[in-house]
Specification:
Keywords: Aminotransferase, Biotin biosynthesis, Cytoplasm, Pyridoxal phosphate, S-adenosyl-L-methionine, Transferase. Catalyzes the transfer of the alpha-amino group from S-adenosyl-L-methionine (SAM) to 7-keto-8-aminopelargonic acid (KAPA) to form 7,8-diaminopelargonic acid (DAPA). It is the only aminotransferase known to utilize SAM as an amino donor. Its cofactor is pyridoxal 5'-phosphate. By secondary structure, this protein is α/β, with parallel strands linked by helices. It is 36% helix and 16% strand. The protein is built from 13 helices and 16 strands. It has a seven-stranded mixed sheet, with helices on both faces. A four-stranded mixed sheet has the order 1-2-3-15. A three-stranded antiparallel sheet has the order 13-14-16, with helices on one face. Helix 6 links the parallel strand 5 and strand 6. Helix 4 packs parallel to helix 10, helix 7 packs parallel to helix 8 and helix 11 packs parallel to helix 13. The longest helix is centred in the last third of the chain and has 22 residues. It is globular and about 65 Å long.
Amino acid sequence: MNTLTQSLLAERDKAVNWHPYTQMKTAGDAIPIVKGKGVYLYDDEGKKYIDAVSSWWVTLHGHAHPYIAERVFEQLNTLEQVIFAGFTHEPAVQLSENLLKLLPENQKKVFYSDNGSTAVEAALKMCIQYAYNIGKEKTKILAFRNAYHGDTFGAMSVSGRSVWTKPFGSMLFEVIFIDTPNAKNLESLKVQIKSIAEDTACFIYEPLVQGAAGMLMYEAEHLDELMKFCRSKEILMIQDEVFTGFGRTGKLFAANHLKEMPDIMCFSKGLTGGTMPMGITTCSQEIFNAFLSDDKYKTLFHGHSFTANPLACTAALASMELLLQEETLTAIDRISGQHSGFTEILAQHPNVENVRQTGTILAFEYKTDQNTSYFNEIGKILYAEFLQRGIIMRPLGNVMYLVPPYCMTTEELNFIYQNILEVLNAFKNQDHFPTHAAD
């Protein structure tokens, strides 16, 4: 790409592109990224940015990983796409075999889609039709308050109601929302669930961490209790591991922190190491069996043009191989340990509150007089400040968080920590940056 083309890229982008979660009238120019390598992204002027959020939580092993690229290139020269209805191919079979070996033992079948939202849509349809196929009328769905499961209509319906979903409110199906469990509310949650159990098809939840809600975290032991109770009431459970899967919680899956097993699991984001889109929904044999019938109308009528795309399957296989290497597992432990040490420092800072960590996910809140929500203007100020320092962080309002690629070194992570402390200290007394911080 020549210099002139680079300099015009932001203007060309503005002329034709509509960016996600962006108010295009007030947004600044998009930063043209021309290259990625490891934890760094490079813009059209040669400035490098350390990717502290794994580019929306997907890039497990760093950008442009040569092993994944090599594997995808080989597959591209063999088979790039084939309809998955009535056909199959080696990458899809191998990926399903490899993934199921890592999941709870009751997970037996894999259904492919193309992103996290559609993985959730498939899971919801499986649960509703499961009840229908076995002759039960169970249409109610249970979910957590503040949930986020995606932006398609079914996924929006089971997500917390907010300004994001308000324009579509009358079109979303009814969902019963409950609080995330803790020692104080567990028994009352059970009473609430018991009252609606007979009509409830499923319970969908983000295990341990509610990502888009602001990295809200809760304990595995309390989720286990809730899952055990739902099982006793024959309520199917959908475990949305789109974000928490593939090492983010310090273990391979959030499921590894739990004793109870879900009926259905959803995956995306880190599935291909951030290389290309893919979604997966796995389920138990019992659910799959409810669709096996001589009655063709009991078929799961769901699919996508790029279902089980061979290139995406190959990328996922390569990413999983890298994930299971001792070097990567050690890095996950190291990052988790570094985060743990830094939380102790953050907890003492006068501008910080609600420091929390689960595995490689670290989050905290900047104290503010403003409304602590996604639309808090402080988020924009923080975002711009870190970009200036060559760090990509994307605060959720006043919630700052780190979700680093696993290839990030101790020194690179310490560089981010140091800059966080510098920003917190620099802004604590500035009038344009409202704060509760002490003088």
